[in-house]
Amino acid sequence: MKVKVLQNIMDANDQLASRNQQLLDKSNVLALNIMSSPGAGKTSLILETIKRLKDRTRIAVVEGDIASTIDADRISKEEVPVVQINTGGQCHIDANMINNALESLPLEDIDLLLIENVGNLVCPAEFKTGAHKRVMLLSVPEGDDKPYKYPLMFTLSAAIVVNKIDMLPFSDFDMTAFQRGVNGLNPKARIFQVSCKTGEGIESWVAWLESEVKDR
Ligand code: MG
Ligand code: ZN
Predict the structure, then answer these.
(1) Are 103 and 130 in contact (CB under 8 A)?
(2) Strands, DSSP E only, in the chain?
(3) Ligand 1 centroid vs 4 CA: distance in angstroms?
(4) CA of 123 to the centre of ligand 2 (A)
(5) Beta 82-86 vs 159-163: how paired, if at all?
(6) How many CA atoms lie within 13 A of 17 on its CB side?
(7) d(CA 85, ligand 2 centre) in Å
(8) What is the pLDDT of residue 6?
(9) H-assigned helices in the chain
(10) What are the residues facing 139 on neighbouring strands?
(11) Please, are residues 156 and 127 in contact by the beta-carbon 8 Å criterion?
(12) How far, in Å, from the CA of 74 to the mean position of ligand 1?
């Protein structure tokens, strides 16, 4: 019985997610669902991206957190449209939450929508939001074994960003082992090595993002 209930929830979510994507497509908005564990640097990556790209691309952000508006407050200083979703305990963003957020965004004036999911490596990958692509962020202190432990998120993501590479000299993180792990699951995934702190590698991530916006 329980299995059937869960199936119905997922079906309803998938339907709403495709409606969200239709809405985004109508206004020619590319949406990315950005996922990571808490503290990996999603908000920092979004801020660094906005700083470099906002003169050329119209960006908006949806911030998903269990509670607080701390991240949305940081983003709003960059003067881009931002909506905070508080999930009230739910550990992922679902399509219904994005549907509500889309209603309060000026979609016609946006080229790129960055959705920051709740920090969690498990269910954000399972729930579609309507975003066109998933991006996963992993930070060096988390370790290079994550593709083996959380394969779904790595399998579904179009791009994988390794953040905090400035910490590599003080860490056992093995980039080659990490890349091997990702390639085994998802050979097409683009891997970017960045440091939001020093700015290293951010330009090539931003260039990829910009080409994704142009290619749609
Ligand atoms: Mg954040
Ligand atoms: Zn969850």
Answers:
(1) no
(2) 30-35, 59-65, 82-86, 112-116, 133-139, 159-163, 190-193
(3) 34
(4) 4
(5) unpaired
(6) 20
(7) 14
(8) 79
(9) 2-26, 42-53, 70-76, 95-103, 146-149, 151-156, 175-185, 202-214
(10) 163
(11) no
(12) 9
Ligand 1 centre to CA of 5 (Å) is 31
* Tokens, residue 211: 């080409």
Give the pTM: 0.95
For 135-149, how does the pLDDT look when each residue is reduced to its tens digit (9 = 90+)?
Answer: 999 999 999 999 999
pLDDT above 70: residue 45: yes
Residues within 5 Å of ion ligand 1, judged at the Cβ atom: 42-43, 71
The pLDDT of residue 1: 58
DSSP code for 78: T
Among residues 121, 212, 134, 205, the alpha carbon closest in space to that of 163 is found at 205
Residues 59/114, Cβ–Cβ less than 8 Å: yes
The C-alpha atoms of residue 64 and residue 167 are separated, in whole angstroms, by 27
pLDDT for 9: 83
Structural tokens at position 75: 């983003």
Residue type at 21 in one-letter notation: Q
Residues near ligand 2 ion, CB 5 Å cutoff = 91-92, 123
Average pLDDT of 135-164? Answer: 97
Identify the nearest ligand to the CA of 93 by its number.
2
CA pair distance 168, 149, nearest whole angstrom:
21
